[in-house]
Every structure is written in structure tokens, then in C-alpha cells.
Design a protein that fits this description.
2 copies of one chain form a homodimer. Chain A is α+β, with helices and mostly antiparallel strands. Helix content of chain A is 15%, strand content 34%. Chain A has 1 helix and 6 strands; from the N terminus they run ββαββββ. The longest helix of chain A is centred in the middle third of the chain and has 23 residues. β3 of chain A pairs antiparallel with β3 of chain B.
């Protein structure tokens, strides 16, 4: 069975995110999948995604934490409702707050792995805790507080 | 007098950051300047820097908070030493932690303004507090804990 990334279940009207929207032709196309109770995102930065030479740009790492976090929040909310991501109504989350701790410089070159666990689901809010690894070494820790998109979003 | 952005004083070997390095041809070229005791960064996102349509991608907003924070930290450290940014030795900071609160969706289109104040300078650590405004409305708040690059960075 080939699993489909969480982000490919987003409604088309909400699939233009620069980080993870599959309809954004300039974007990063971040993708997330379940592996048991953890969700995983694998991403190889481009050579120009540099901080100081040899290491990955912190803003890109924050983007990975961010989009993997909102994707995991959506997937967890479906799970909590006991239904799959291809069922209606769609659930889509945005970031209320983002925290990133840069434990050590992240080497630029290898594929990175972001692993997330769901810390709390409360009403429309989901807290996601994340670790970013390079060659098995934890370089970054992050936390996303995600909230389900309100009907009046941006009005 | 035309002032030069903080980031243009970075040593060439440390000026390749995807967010703010003027030598990164693919990057955002984030620039920061003093305006009295506050530092200011102005940036107009590209049309494809979208979250959900009509609003700015949160990962880009985090990048603005990040690079404006480390730039402000460097500028503040020179000020604290009573010298200008064109004097030796150079001071360059990296992010130890980044926190971003998304208060409301940030409209995509207008120029954004990030305003920062220096909260604390202690040893090699500088804490920078930031507000991001769109048309004068505060959309994002952020805090960066920046540390001066250690001599053994990345070893």
C-alpha cells in the first residue's frame, strides 16, 4: 500500500501553502506521513538553503517544524474523530505559535527527518512536539500550537 | 547620509545566509537598519509566499523574525562595545531559539515592517523582541535568543 501525504488531502482551495501546498509551484512541498504514533517528514534542503556555509538555514528548519506541525495536527484531529483523511468535512489547521530550539548546527547535504508526536488535542487546538534529525543526530526541537481554521479566517 | 544594512557588514565568509546573506543569489536578502533604539526591517513577500490564499506564509514570517533578530543582535553588540559595525573584530550571531506568535493572518501584498527592541545583552547572548506590522496593524510577535558564533561553530 502506498500512503498519501497528509498534505495531499487538503482541500484544493487550501493547498497553496509555500511550505506544504502541492499546488504551489515555487514551494517546498513538505510532506508528512504516519509511522505508528509518530508522524514523519523527510526533506532534503537545496544547496542554497544555507545559514553559514555547510549548515542549513534556520528559517527553513522553522518552516519544516511549522508545516509538519500543522499537517500532523490535521491528521491527529481526523484520528481523534475516528475517520480517515479522505472523509468530509475536511480539517485544516494553521499555526497559532511556533517555538524552535536550535540545539546544534544542522549539516547541509543529507536528507533531514522530522519526527512529531501529538502532545494535546483540546477543542480546535492541537499541540505538536517535534524533533529534527540529521543522520540520526537531533539538531532541532520544536513545538507548534495549531488551531483549526476558523470559518471567518482572515475576515 | 545613506545607511548600510546591518547584514552588509557581515564578513563575506558569513554572508551566504538564505534569509539575509547578500551573497546568496537565491535568498530573501532581508535587511535591517536602526531607527533610534528600534531596528527596522521592511520586506515585501512574493506573490507565491502564500499560506492560505491572500495571506503570508508563516515560515517566511518566521524567517523575517529570525534574520532581523540575529542582525539586530549583532548591531546591538557593536553598540554595547561602543564601536561601529565597520570595525574589527566582526561580530556575527546565530539563533539559539526562535518563538513566533501569529496573532492574526498577515495579508499578502503590502510591504511588511518588522520592528525590534533589544531586551537583554548578557555575555555572548542577546535577546531580541519583535513585532511584525502590515499597514500598521500588528500581526505577529516574535522573540529571538541569539548567540555570538563560537569559534568552534559546527565542529
Amino acid at each position: 500500500m502506498t500512503s498519501k501525504a497528509f498534505q495531499h488531502y487538503y482541500p484544493e482551495s487550501l493547498a497553496h501553502c509555500y511550505g506544504c501546498g502541492h499546488l504551489n509551484e515555487h514551494g517546498h512541498h513538505i510532506e508528512s506521513f504516519w509511522e505508528g504514533d509518530e508522524s514523519v517528514c523527510r526533506f532534503t534542503p537545496k544547496p542554497y538553503h544555507t545559514a553559514v556555509p555547510g549548515f542549513v538555514y534556520g528559517g527553513l528548519l522553522a518552516s519544516l517544524i511549522d508545516c509538519h506541525g500543522t499537517g500532523t495536527a490535521a491528521a491527529a484531529a481526523y484520528r481523534a474523530e475516528g475517520r480517515t483523511m479522505d472523509t468530509e468535512p475536511p480539517l485544516r489547521f494553521v499555526t497559532a505559535s511556533l517555538h524552535v530550539d536550535y540545539l546544534k548546527p544542522t549539516p547541509l547535504g543529507p536528507e533531514l527527518e522530522v519526527r512529531a508526536t501529538v502532545g494535546e488535542i483540546k477543542g480546535r487546538k492541537v499541540v505538536v512536539k517535534e524533533r529534527l534529525l540529521c543522520d540520526g543526530v537531533e539538531c532541532v526541537r520544536g513545538e507548534v500550537v495549531a488551531v483549526q481554521i476558523p470559518e471567518d479566517f482572515g475576515r
